[in-house]
Amino acid sequence: MSTNSDITCGAVAPLLAARVHARLAGEDAACVERHLGECAPCRATSRALAVAWRAGAEPGADLWPRLRARMARADERVRLRLPPVTWPVAAAAAAAAAILMIVPEPARFLAACGVL
Ligand SMILES: [Zn+2]
């Protein structure tokens, strides 16, 4: 979605993760804030990124290895006798369902996370 601000959704998407990590400053930060003030889908994406980051799932190329490590630690705690592949598949399905429910444009969110 394009808005009346001087930056488009496509240009904002790669900056949202930096904004969540407070690594955005100057004119980039001002442009993103103006855009978020006008664009509900990008606000929703930004909120979803913040939730994922607070949950320890910082978007990036190492997202899946870190999720797998977290799931392995959780698996050790509960000591369930399920096949090892079960937890990653269930977690991926739950994450996909959450993204589809929270994010109006899941493909853009996944692209911002570096998944697509
Ligand atoms: Zn937007």
Structure description:
The protein is mainly α. The chain is 69% helix and 0% strand. It has one domain. It is built from six helices and no strands. The two termini are 19 Å apart. It has helices spanning 9-20, 26-38, 40-54, 63-78, 86-102, 106-112. Residues 1, 3, 9, 12, 35, 39, 41-42 line the site of zinc ion (ZN).
Topology:
Blueprint: H1 9-20, H2 26-38, H3 40-54, H4 63-78, H5 86-102, H6 106-112
Helix pairs in contact: 1-2, 1-3, 1-6
The structure holds zinc ion.
Keywords:
elongated; mainly alpha; 6 helices; single chain
Name the hetero compounds present.
Answer: zinc ion
Can you write the helix and strand succession as a string?
HHHHHH
* Mean pLDDT reading: 74
Number of strands: 0
| β-strand amount | under 5%
Helical region count?
Answer: 6
Name the structural class. Answer: mainly alpha
Short description:
The protein has helices at residues 9-20, 26-38, 40-54, 63-78, 86-102, 106-112. The mean pLDDT is 74. The protein is built from 6 helices and no strands.
